[in-house]
Amino acid sequence: NAGADAVAYVTIDGVTFDGNSTGAAPGNGGALHITGPGEVKVKNATVTNNSASAEGGGLWNSVAGTLWVIDSELTNNVASGAEADQGGGALFNDGGMMHVVNTTVTNNSADGAAGSGGGLLATVGSMVWVNNSEFSGNSSNRAGGAIEVRGEADTMATVKLEFVDFMNNSTGDAPGNGGAIHITGQADVMVNGGMAMANSAAAEGGAFWNSAVGMLTVKNVKLEENVASGNDPDQGGGALFTDGGMMTVHNAYIAGNMADGAAGSGGGILAVPGSELEIMGGTIISNTANRAGGAIEIKGSEEAHVTATINGVRMMQNMAGAAPGNGGALHITGQADVMVNGGVVMGNMAAAEGGGLWNSAVGMLAVDGVAVIGNTASGNDADQGGGGLFNDGGTMTISNTIVRGNVADGTSGSGGGILNNMGMLTVMESTIAGNSSNRAGGGIEDNAGSTVRLHNVRLLKNSTGSAPGNGGGLHITGAGTVEVVNSTVAENSAAAEGGGLWNSGVGTLLVSATTLNKNMTTASSADTDAAAQGGGALFNDGGDLTVANSTLTGNMASNGTGGGLLNVAGTSTVVNVTIAANMDNGIVNTTGTVALANSIVANNGTDCVGPVNAAGTPNLDTDGSCGSTITADPMLDMLANNGGQTATLALLDGSPAIDAGDNATCAAASVNGVDQRGAIRPAGAACDLGAYEADAAPNNGGGDDCADVPKNVLRNGSFEENMSGWRFFTNGNGGFSISDMAADCDNAAQVDIVATGNNTQLYQRNITLMENTTYRLTFVASSTSGNDVGVYLHNHQAPYENYGLALNQVNLEDGWQRYTVEFSTKNISGMVDNARLRFWMAPFAAAGDRYRIDDVRLEVVDGSESELPDVMAQSVEVMESGLLLGMDAAAFDPMILTMIDDGNHVDEEAATLETFLPLVQR
After folding, report:
1. Within 10 Å of residue 916's Cβ, how many Cβ atoms?
2. Which helix (H) or strand (E) holds 18?
3. What CATH number is given to the structural domain containing 846?
């Protein structure tokens, strides 16, 4: 006890405090109590079996005091205060300063009716540091089984916990929040390192709980096997719960936690109205919730939205149970704005809807650069499923994302990849591949009045089963509206109807600048309805279907009809479309209307079956069955990348389709004066029939001054559309910008290196290449330091294969130089659309470097495979192994290169844990 003007300094070393107690006046500090501005150091002490009738069963520190606890053990102490601000079974800090170092705090309790902080209670104004310590087996009745932190607006509490382990702490049911840590009021708590394991809360926050005005930061912490048992939908958060405050979680490992109440939500994390949640990096794995959000539940309201950002996080093998069981990884309830950037959503399960991610009717969910792979939704109803993602009426935007191998396996499960239920869904620059459903929409199901926009999307190898089995790539139920633009729909299959795309009796489907290739329906010959089924590429069940500037080729209706298009009712409008080389007929119309204009229907067995309205505008077919103005061979080339975003069937010289079209039809809204590639129509006296305009330059990006690159496989090679089509990543420190110091046209790419990383690259992905084809790559580049750049062309997803160009160390100069190389494609069968062209600055870059790249062209060259021209042979070293010459694997960070490659825009390689290394020359 120090006087008002005196400070007492006391050191207690090697002492045991055992079985001491204090009465009820007020009853604080069972073993030690500090009054006034004293500074006490307790070292190498044992504090056990002490009790206080109110606060601090072991040690109690005053508002002006400083207490150090070093290399000590505090066990079996009890504080019995009945109020919410009383307790602190082992330690109580009444606003002063407390340091706890290398200390164990075990089996202490705050057993009052509303006792808090079984191990430690820090009140308003406190400053507490805990380092390299352990809190285990502590308990409280109200909150904070291990630690309770209490603050106010004017007297915030600050607590910093570094390398602290929390194990088997618990809080009772009054109300029972924060099995390990609970924050009341305004406080700033940081937990850095350490672990929280097997803690439990009767209601919320099995490990840590944050208040409505609190700030909780969790960095580099393992949170495992914690449990929150609240029964209400807004209770749970097996590991973490934030009640409206700010929570930041960085590089945490959150595994095996549970929200096991009857309607418990958020097996790993629960954020309720008003919260601001940021999760950066880390892994959330094998968590479970009975109601929703196996990994994360975000619950907003009209009055208090939730804002959440989830960057580069791996959410894997989480599960939402059957009450009702939505959002295996992430579930949004109410009004929230959530962004998921990069990372992996893999192997999660939901009993009903959204095996991976689930969005509410008023939620906004943006998904960018994420790998959504191998998730399962098992709801049995037709409006349940969404193996990868489920949108329940809100707004969902998906970009630069892979949705692959997801399943809707319920009896009538729909939307193997995505189910959009009365919401707004936009998908851009993404791949939806290898997903499956039992009922409909192997790739995407659009249900009941929804709106879907697919732009530059690849719908590949999706399938739907036999219940009934419609829409292998995409299925519309009810009055949905869908537009598919600049996309590829290939190798999808349906057991009954619409191997590629299926439109409902009241749906609206627009297909523009899109290629549908090798889609099929697989009806059995024993199926009595097989003859009326089909539509290998497209099926219209009575709604409005418009197909413009598109290519349908190589599709099939096995044991059915309409390999290209089957229209059983409604209206199908086909304008400037090429329908060629499909099996089981090109167009079949039963009772609806098919209007054909400026189109080619050729070599489909029978080109048209049933009435087709081809009057008034020119068309071409090969057998006269469509009533076209021209019956002839259209002289089509093979399907290839002829520029633009999708593969097309070019018109060979002398084709009767050239200059045979109607200019007014080409100028109308659905065609808009361009062809499938974006090339201007007409290029000659009149526009051409079909999707391809001969002798016209495709739109590959770039302004008007750069339109003289007729067959550049790349998009925006001159950077006139800024970064469109390109992506940049560094795990060092630097940035990408568009410079007006261009070699050609107006813009150039500029990369400034502030600090070096080991994976710095500017690249373009999803490039289409053909087998056994010679290409020429040219580009103009400079480096202010003269440092070099590597150039690679390989598949975008693991396992990596060199596609013919594996070059290292192009010698740059401080000034524009043009570089050219010709090569023949390798390791390609047929055609691929998954190539990545990569300018790799690492490991050559150094701080202060400025790279500029411009006028990048990748073009098909006639002739056989060529050797490297001299200019490149002198400036390039060919790779001899999977590592850079003179470097070893230790130079690469495997976590960065495998799981968060591309700036946390993880691609399919993340699922297979392949390391991103320079490629072997083959």
Report:
1. 21
2. strand 16-18
3. 2.60.120.260
